[in-house]
Amino acid sequence: MLEADNLECVRGEHRLFAGLGFKLEAGELLYLQGRNGSGKTSLLRMLIGLLPPEAGAIHWKGTPIKAQADDFRADLCYLGHLNAIKEELTPLENLLAAARLADEEISEDDAIDALEQVGLAGREDLACKYLSQGQKRRVALARLVKEKRPLWILDEPFVALDTAAVDWLAGIISGHLQRGGMAVLTTHQVVNIPAGNVRELRLS
Q1: How far is 106 from 62, CA to CA, in rounded Å?
Q2: Tens digit of pLDDT for each residue in 46-93?
Q3: What is the tens place of the pLDDT at every residue in 23-51?
Q4: Pairing between strand 63-64 and 55-60?
Q5: Angle at the Cα of 158 from the Cα atoms of 138 and 1, rounded to 5 degrees
């Protein structure tokens, strides 16, 4: 279970939110919504341990995340609003490198299969600098195909995707929830995730 209790976020002289809390159980998805500047990305950074809250606490499996940094990271998959790929590397090289950095095992065949699933068949060995923005986003999202970590934190994962890719990603998230996983994501668009218990949290 992921639990946020009485969180407060202050950036500069501005309090973005206070008294924020929620609980997320296995099989549940939290849609985080709000206008630009409302604190969505700041909240995600708190949830992954990169930004300490001004007040409040975040617990994973009943223990504060700051007290179990390594164990928490082993259960966490974070995908930011930036693609975090190397332009000079190919999609295949980027996916294999991301797996190594996350201390995950993935074979080259599995990586190729993941890239095919996101619609990059035939582009596995093309440098990412030659890909469109939508294709680069798919390279970043390809890691989710084989991802088994229970907690996914996704910042605007549907950005730059066409309708078919949005449906594919919704299916990937749905499968994750069906396996008992949890997900928190920000989005400016409502996407139907056909599984799990879906909650909404709006920052104003």
Answers
A1: 30
A2: 999 999 999 999 999 999 999 998 899 999 999 988 888 999 999 999
A3: 999 999 999 998 888 999 999 999 999 99
A4: antiparallel
A5: 105
Q: Dihedral, CA atoms, 48, 52, 54, 56, nearest 10 degrees?
A: 50
Q: Give the strand order in the sheet containing 182-186.
A: 76-79, 151-155, 182-186, 28-34, 197-203
| Tally: H helices and E strands in the chain | 6, 9
Please tell me the distance from the alpha carbon of residue 75 to that of residue 104, in angstroms, as a whole number.
12
Sheet holding 55-60, edge to edge: 14-24, 2-11, 55-60, 63-64
Nearest 5 degrees, angle CA 116-CA 118-CA 91? 70
Distance CA 201, CA 6 (A): 14
The model carries a pTM of 0.92
Instruction: Count other C-beta atoms under 10 Å from residue 59's C-beta.
Output: 18
**Mean pLDDT across the chain:** 92
Q: Count of alpha carbons within 13 Å of 4, Cβ hemisphere only? A: 24
Tokens of 28: 């549940």
28, 7 Cβ separation under 8 angstroms: no
197 has which bridge partners?
Answer: 28
